[in-house]
Amino acid sequence: MKDGNASPQQYKERGSILRKLIAASQGTEDMGSWIHQFADSVSSAVQTGAYNEGLEELKDLELSLDKLRGGNEHKSYVAFRVITSEFMAQMSNPKANHAVVQEEYIEKLKTFSTEYPTSPDAAEAMIQIGLNDELGGQEKDAQNWYKKVAANFSGTDFGKKAQGAIVRLNLEGKTLNLRGKTLDGKEVQTTGPTIVHYWATWCDPCKADMAELRKLQAKYAKQNLQIVGVNLDNEAATAANFLKENAGKYPWSHIHEQGGFQSDLATKLGVLSVPVTILIDGKGVVIKRTAGFSANPEMLQAVEKLMEQGPVAKPKQATAKPNPNKK
To answer: Are 153 and 159 a contacting pair, CB within 8 Å?
Structure first.
């Protein structure tokens, strides 16, 4: 039986069996496996709305681990899934005050990262806190969270993402050389005045950006304004089909690398959400970067100024160059 086809009663029965296995295996290596199976299965079911009662079961398991031999070793794993499951369940409620839910979620993540600072899930929690600060315009606070992840989880995927985010937030005034393969296999490299736009097919703000970028491309065609899209869908076919269905709407190069947000294209600049826009002048210097384009008049002004005046800054080397094509 696949989880996607399970009924609430089946989830309850499976959970009962797993709880017995957890109790029977306390103090052994098998105990962790049963706990993870229970937490993952129930958390997934709660988040998809397949088993709403599962949230209370997760909370009950978290509390019961204090009474089981070796249970505390796995408490952080369950606690994190309680937080994320509850958040997703609340956000799916159309009557909920989503701003309040988001604020409460972030506070819970802060508490979690304090109580379980060495837990692998603490890295994800701090990344989420940092992203929330970043999107809220609190970039200094965001960098502080990213720095904690980069320092405490160095070498992990989250550590690399955090380090990339720090690089991205400090790009302005530094050079950026981005290159990769397009969806049809051609090599592309940023040259001359360039707008780099990270996007995904499911992202509506990205599509709003792309409509404005099309206007700019037409307006500054004689100035050779280059636009490079960086698609972060997991599969290239998803982006290729979207562009085919919208033939002619977004006629610039679109780079893609398998893995989407897990790809080097995303990781090396710590792109954690889309859209992200980066403006590069003719010398390869980043003039401005922002979360989006159409909702940021300052970015449009920067593009217009660049097209009128040309590059003036002397490049300084960025601490990392996102170049997915390793030699």
So the answer is: yes
pLDDT of residue 116: 97
Question: If DSSP codes are grouped into helix, strand and coil, which group holds residue 252?
Answer: coil
Half-sphere exposure of 135 (CA within 13 A, CB side): 14
Digit-coded pLDDT (tens) for 235-270: 999 999 999 999 999 999 999 999 999 999 999 999
Residue 18 to residues 15, 185, 289: CA-CA distances in angstroms? 5, 48, 49
Backbone dihedral angles phi then psi of residue 138, each to the nearest 5 degrees: -95, 70
Residue in 306, 281, 255, 254 with CA at minimum distance from that of residue 192 = 281
Give the pair of three-digit tokens for residue 92. Answer: 């799916």
How do 194-199 and 226-231 pair as beta strands? parallel
* pLDDT tens digits, one per residue of 140-182: 999 999 999 999 999 999 999 999 999 999 999 999 999 999 9
DSSP annotation of 267 reads H
Q: Are 152 and 123 in contact (CB under 8 A)?
A: yes
**DSSP string of 157-215?**
HHHHHHHHHHHHHT-TTEE---EEEBTTS-EEE--SSEEEEEE-TT-HHHHHHHHHHHH
Contact partners, residue 91, CB within 8 Å, separation at least 6: 98, 101, 102
Q: What is the DSSP letter of 272?
A: -
Threshold 0.85, pTM exceeds? yes
Residue with the two structure tokens 């380090």:
163
The neighbouring-strand residues paired with 226 are 194
Kindly list the distances between the CA atom of residue 20 and the CA atoms of 14, 38, 86, 192, in Å, as whole numbers in the listed order: 10, 11, 24, 64
Sign, CA torsion 302/305/306/311: negative
Q: How far is CA 191 from CA 226, 228, 236, 257, 299, in A?
A: 8, 10, 24, 20, 19
Task: Say how many C-beta atoms besides its own lie within 10 A of residue 254's C-beta.
Answer: 23
320 exposure class (CB count in 10 Å sphere: 0-12, 13-18, 19+): middle
